[in-house]
Specification:
Blueprint: E1 5-13, H1 20-32, E2 33-41, H2 52-62, E3 69-74, H3 78-85, E4 89-94, H4 99-113, E5 118-123, H5 133-141, H6 152-159
Parallel strand pairs: 1-2, 1-4, 2-3, 4-5
Bound molecules: 4'-phosphopantetheine.
4'-phosphopantetheine (PNS) binds next to strand 1 and helix 4.
Length: 161
């Protein structure tokens, strides 16, 4: 087995829905960290497509092949959850330059609140650089084909909504 960084890293987000872009970041981070916990923000949006519990189930189904990946939900501040769980890192995916502004502000805020929790950015594969959950929701709401954006299980769940 490859050597991985010991301890726990969180991969936080809304994951509404979980996309191939998220999966790509998870596959990369699962090769770097010993344990990675996908942390679903329970209170991220009032107009969510999937409930946090549905998102958790879908992510678990899509990450069976990654044995060091777990999925949990959290309320309130991410850094409080990170401290509670003893996580030393937060992983965020970067797709393009326009992500930087929001991501930097969030990372600096989180660092101010929890100086010992480090934010690490991973670049997605260029193949997934244009995927966002909101665009996926938008395309799907107009009947468009999203099969190249989300895993088959997520597509099926979206079609059932
Ligand atoms: O996938 P998203 O929607 O970009 O994820 C954003 C998320 C959920 C990671 C962020 O909004 C978050 O951490 N929410 C919990 C509340 C919190 O800690 N906010 C402070 C960060 S500025």
């Amino acid at each position: 087995m490859e050597k991985r960084i010991k301890g726990l890293a969180l991969y936080p987000g809304s994951f509404d829905p979980f996309t191939f872009g998220h999966l790509d970041i998870l596959e990369r981070s699962s090769r770097i960290f010993e344990t990675i916990v996908v942390t679903i923000a329970r209170n991220s949006s009032k107009n969510a497509l999937f409930t946090p519990a549905e998102r958790k189930e879908l992510i678990e189904e899509c990450t069976h092949h990654l044995p060091n990946v777990q999925t949990e939900m959290f309320d309130g501040l991410l850094v409080e959850f990170a401290k509670e769980r003893g996580a030393s890192a937060l992983v965020r995916g970067l797709r393009q330059v326009s992500d930087f502004d929001y991501e930097f502000r969030m990372a600096f805020a989180n660092r101010r609140l929890a100086p010992n929790v480090e934010t690490l950015f991973l670049m997605t594969s260029e193949h997934h650089a244009l995927i966002s959950a909101s665009i996926v929701r938008e395309i799907h709401s107009h009947g468009g084909d999203i099969s190249s954006f989300v895993p088959a299980r997520v597509l099926q769940a979206m079609n059932n909504k």
